[in-house]
Specification:
With 100 residues, the chain is an alpha+beta fold. The protein contains 6 helices and 3 strands; from the N terminus they run E-E-H-H-H-E-H-H-H. The protein has helices spanning 23-26, 30-37, 41-45, 55-67, 77-86, 90-99, and strands spanning 9-14, 17-22, 47-49. Strands 2-1-3 form a 3-stranded mixed beta sheet.
Length: 100
């Protein structure tokens, strides 16, 4: 069944910068999907703040979620792995582990 909470855009805040993202892309992560489809503040405000994610890591994750490709390098690999594990994105975690 369709979840209306996942059909519109959400604001993701990383490093003080706001990014508009389709909620369906974020729904690839179970924790983010739960945030957006529950009674939590994130669902009501349509805004998710990721305080422990760098801008470079977010850009890589965003590219993966929207395009399926993961730009990864020695500077971002460990953080990408940590964030992928935190937000339960197994394909990203696997790619980061392979890189390391």
């Amino acid at each position: 069944s369709r979840n209306p909470a996942l059909l519109d855009a959400v604001t993701v805040v990383v490093g003080g910068t706001e990014h508009r993202v389709n909620a369906l892309l974020l729904a690839q992560s179970q924790p983010l999907r739960t945030m957006l489809s529950s009674g939590l503040d994130e669902a009501r405000d349509r805004r998710i703040i990721l305080p422990d994610v760098s801008t470079r890591c977010w850009e890589a994750l965003s590219e993966y979620l929207s395009c399926g490709s993961l730009p990864i390098d020695g500077e971002t690999a460990v953080e990408i792995l940590q964030v992928a594990l935190m937000y339960d994105i197994p394909a990203v975690a696997s790619a980061a582990e392979e890189f390391l």
